[in-house]
């Protein structure tokens, strides 16, 4: 079965441009948060797991240090005869993000065998776009893939499509620049295939979707919707049946456990020859014996105290006798 390469590059700014007409434009921080598997940005992943760092710093560290990295990218300008550094605009595209995927199911892959492919992808990215600030591997989606990030004060100057589009920009028509963009991206895909993919037996171009007339498309779309509705109904019936079966099993289990507990309780009542009254009498007797012991304990304490007093008194008598003998005894 043929396997096809997949690579994609895009650029992002720290904040969305005020000229943007879309309200869903993603920023650098959105992209890096998704790569870091921050919950709010990775809800499309069924069971998110932390990415594996392959190169550079983590995506979280890159997000935290993005402004600091861009300070080194500030351009020098001369104003009033003095050289000053011009900070990079907040809405300038400063992050080039690339995705390189391996066309095999994540659960069926031996990561150690595929790892060289991803390391070659990182080297290809480095040769193509310069430094690599971060590269991370995701194993929690359908296909294994890596995200590679490069920071620049103008990331679009690194993007081959935007470079070609700018060189062919025309006020009269945007068709020429659009064609130039597509051709440049095709060349990028060719380069990636020649440099990396072909060494791992991956095809350059994937299966093309058949183009059909709009009327046929609508018919096909309705048929697909009908097929999907029928599948959904069947699945609902299956799940409902499974739920009923599970409910019956739980009810049966509950009844069996209830009968078992009631039987054990009845057996305990029959075999236990100590009545409640006998237990109460024994408890009362034990309390009485305890009170007697406490009283005896108090008597013993009193005797010990009196004995100590007698010992002290005896010592005083001995002392006085000794003093008397010294004063009035034979000389």
TrEMBL record:
Keywords associated with the record: Coiled coil
Keyword Coiled coil: yes
Coiled coil regions, renumbered to chain: 276-327
Superkingdom to which the source organism belongs: Bacteria
Protein name: Mobilization protein
Species this chain originates from: Methylophaga aminisulfidivorans MP
């Amino acid at each position: 079965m043929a396997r096809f390469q997949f690579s994609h590059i895009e650029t992002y700014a720290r904040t969305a441009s005020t000229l943007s007409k879309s309200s869903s434009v993603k920023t650098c921080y959105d992209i890096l948060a998704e790569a870091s598997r921050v919950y709010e940005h990775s809800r499309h992943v069924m069971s998110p797991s932390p990415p594996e760092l392959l190169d550079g710093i983590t995506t979280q560290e890159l997000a935290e240090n993005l402004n600091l990295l861009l300070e080194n990218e500030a351009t020098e300008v001369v104003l009033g005869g003095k050289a000053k550094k011009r900070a990079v605009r907040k809405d300038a595209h400063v992050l080039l993000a690339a995705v390189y995927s391996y066309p095999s199911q994540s659960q069926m892959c031996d990561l150690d065998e595929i790892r060289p492919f991803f390391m070659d992808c990182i080297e290809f990215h480095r040769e193509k776009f310069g430094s690599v600030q971060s590269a991370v591997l995701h194993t929690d989606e359908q296909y294994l893939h890596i995200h590679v990030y490069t920071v620049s004060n103008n990331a679009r100057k690194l993007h081959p499509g935007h470079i070609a589009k700018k060189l062919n920009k025309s006020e009269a028509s945007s068709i020429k620049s659009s064609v130039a963009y597509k051709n440049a991206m095709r060349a990028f895909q060719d380069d990636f295939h020649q440099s990396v993919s072909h060494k791992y037996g991956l095809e350059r171009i994937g299966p093309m979707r058949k183009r059909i007339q709009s009327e046929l498309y609508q018919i096909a779309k309705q048929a697909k919707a009908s097929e999907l509705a029928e599948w959904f109904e069947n699945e609902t019936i299956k799940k409902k049946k499974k739920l009923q079966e599970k409910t019956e099993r739980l009810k049966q289990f509950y009844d069996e456990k209830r009968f078992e507990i009631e039987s054990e309780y009845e057996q305990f009542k029959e075999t236990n020859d100590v009545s409640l009254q006998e237990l109460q009498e024994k408890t009362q007797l034990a309390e009485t014996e305890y009170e007697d012991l406490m009283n005896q304990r108090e008597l013993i304490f009193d005797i010990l105290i009196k004995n100590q007093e007698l010992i002290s008194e005896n010592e005083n008598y001995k002392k006085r006798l000794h003093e008397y003998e010294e004063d009035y005894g034979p000389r």
